[in-house]
Known about the structure:
The protein contains 3 helices and 9 strands; from the N terminus they run H-E-E-E-H-H-E-E-E-E-E-E. Strands 1, 2, 3, 4, 5, 6, 7, 8 and 9 form a 9-stranded mixed β-sheet that branches. It has 2 domains: 1-30; 38-224, no CATH class. It is 23% helix and 32% strand. By secondary structure, it is α+β, with helices and mostly antiparallel strands. The protein is globular and about 45 Å long.
Amino acid sequence: MNYRFNNYSRKNIRIFWFSILFTILIIVLANPAQSQVTLCYPDCPNDVWNPMPPSPALTYQITLPCGEPVIVHYRTRIACGAFYDLFIEEIEFLNGYAGGQHCGQTMTVSEMLEAAMVQMMIADPMRFPPDTSSADTCVDNYRVMVGGCWKPTFPIGVGGFVSKADGITPNVTAGLLYPCVFVECCIDWYTVCIVNHQKVITYNSAKSTPGYCDPRQYQLGCYPACQ
């Protein structure tokens, strides 16, 4: 009797968990935005990021003020037909760990991200309006989003430099800057103007949201993305 009861109970448990998983799958498939819960969605959840995860992000090469070339991994969307949104997912240093370490001596993580934001808006691989061929005009609904906390694979700050001369060989070869968390997003608002066929970028602090970053909550080595 106990044997039959145990088998019956196990079968019911398996059916129960299968039903739960099937229900979750249906919910996710019914709303594509829900499959992107790791990305920033401050509003307009039906306007998904492009490319849509899990597809790889788009890439564009810029040079940071420290002189190091980097590849910005990014996604875009036009939210509610009104907001030009850019999501920066990762920054990759072409010179690897050494390149990131060099930048980390003179720039903070938030400064690297801010420089990447502005250069992306100037270069405009997203092809958002306005372009430099336009008559003098302004677009005041640019938004750049990043996770609230970011982690470098290289040291930040003077005194963090490590070289082979120190007898220490870093066990990380890649120079990466990536989010500790994609949610609790930093949202920076900008106005992009064309003045005499030149782009002028203005930061709107009143609308911007700094996000949230408590390194103790996530992992060691996390830095605020926006300050």
